[in-house]
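[step 3/7] fold_predict: job queued, chain A
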Amino acid sequence: MSAATINPNEAAHFGALAADWWDPHGSSAMLHKLNPVRLAYIRGRIDAHWHGDARARHPLRDKSALDVGCGAGLLAEPLARMGADVTGVDAAPENIAAAQSHAAGQGLNIAYFAGELADLPPGKFDLVTSMEVVEHVSDPAAFIGQLAARLAAGGLMILSTPNRTALSKLLLVEAAERIGAVPRGTHDWDRFLKPEELTGLIEDAGLEVIDRTGLSPSPARGFKLGGNEAMNYLVAARWPG
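[step 4/7] structure written:
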């Protein structure tokens, strides 16, 4: 995230949660429930985009991946296990410290950077991901433009974010924060993007949206992929042609 997009208050909020990030029962419990479903979507799009074998253990072998707003590495580590050369960047130094420590304990070699996306060494990536981040930046259009600028020709970009609906306001903001499912102050509903708004920003950055799906609560599994976008959704994009 560049100087034009990092929101210092948001960075401080999530940095304060760093020590608890890898506790599946702690303040990031919701992310731990979301992550398997997001990973299933990402793996499916990877296989479809690069015509891979769904049974392959390392579908990202010989590919580079950038996870922006990586937190303490909840997505970066699975991407590394898929074989990618992974770089993670986050606005909160506390998150990066936690990510580095956890990756070292797992024997994973992931390049982590704290601060601005624009301050990363020059380079482009085959896969660019940013999960639940665009709603926290100060300039979503500039942020999406920077993500696109890091995407290599023939690459794949995957984003997820909450939808701005009455249901998300009731359940994701008011109810979830009231009962402690997510820490208070995590979400500002007014900053949520509707699917058509995010799609427009992606297209304005020159990319082509190739897939979109909802991510919704499931009594049996916690969360599920599907057509219902009222709470949350994922978007996949690529360079046209």
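[step 5/7] annotate
The mean pLDDT is 89.
Residues 21 and 28 are 5 Å apart (CA to CA).
exit 0
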